[in-house]
Structure formats: C-alpha cells, structure tokens
Amino acid sequence: MSNIKMLDKKEETDGDIEVSWVDQQRINEFSKYNAKIDDLEDQYEKLKQEKEYLDDVSMELELADEDELVRYKVGDAFVHVTAPEAIEKVEKESEKLGLALEEVTQQVTTVQGKMEALKKELYAKFGNAINLEKE
C-alpha cells in the first residue's frame, strides 16, 4: 500500500524555493541530530536492559546464603566472592547504570530541543516543501 497522496492547491509550492548555503547547513545539522537521537535511543535501550539484568541478579543474590561463594564476572574472568560482596558490587554497577541512563536522557532532551528550534526555522522558510518528520 502506498503512502503517496496528492497535495491540495494551497499545499503546493512553487517548486522554485532557493536553498541557500546556510539553509543547507541547517538541514544537514538537523539530519545529524536525527541520527544522534537514534544512536542515543539505542544506547538507552541497551543500558536499560543491562540495568534490568543487574536488578534480576541482585534479587537472586538476596536469596543466596551469606557464606556461599558466588561467581562474579570481572572482565572475561569469573572470581569467587561471598554473596554480600557480590550484592554490593552489583548495586554499585546498578547505580552507575542509573546515572548513565539519566545522562543519556538529558542528552536526548538537549538534542530534541535543538531539533525543534531547527525545525521551526526550516518549516518557517520552506513550509510544506520540506519534511522533517520521522516515518
């Protein structure tokens, strides 16, 4: 099914809109921000999933005996540590991930603000001759 539709006469443009060098730079900047948003959203999802895994591990470790040794992954190796030590390490990692998630969220908000400002400028000049919406 095609999403092509005819424009109304009032929606049509002259087709002779001149794109200046500055306008092209703004369009390129918008495109870069759009790609950055996609990257940040992917990064956010990965961090969120990793935090969920750590939360699950933390719940499992709560059920372990205090004297029981558990394997804790450090880099590519596993080290035997007590359950309370493992819980402490997992909680620290979870806190770091929480901060990373907040940072990514702030970056997304900042980039979206810049995109909105560019979008207003570009739509003001080009109207319906330009499409800046994601599909």
UniProtKB/TrEMBL annotation:
Query: Chaperone among the record's keywords?
Result: yes
Q: Which domain of life is it from?
A: Eukaryota
Quote the CDD domains the UniProt record gives.
Prefoldin_4
Q: Does the keyword Heme apply?
A: no
UniProtKB keywords: Chaperone, Coiled coil
User: Which InterPro entries does the entry link to?
Assistant: PFD_beta-like, PFDN4, Prefoldin
Which Pfam family would be a valid example here?
Prefoldin_2
Give any GO molecular function from the UniProt entry: unfolded protein binding
Q: Which GO terms describe its cellular component?
A: cytoplasm; prefoldin complex
As recorded in UniProt, coiled-coil segments are: 30-57, 87-121
Gene Ontology BP annotations: protein folding
Q: Give the function comment from the record.
A: Binds specifically to cytosolic chaperonin (c-CPN) and transfers target proteins to it. Binds to nascent polypeptide chain and promotes folding in an environment in which there are many competing pathways for nonnative proteins.
| Family the UniProt entry places it in | Belongs to the prefoldin subunit beta family.
Assembly state and interactors? Heterohexamer of two PFD-alpha type and four PFD-beta type subunits.
- Provide the protein name: Prefoldin subunit 4
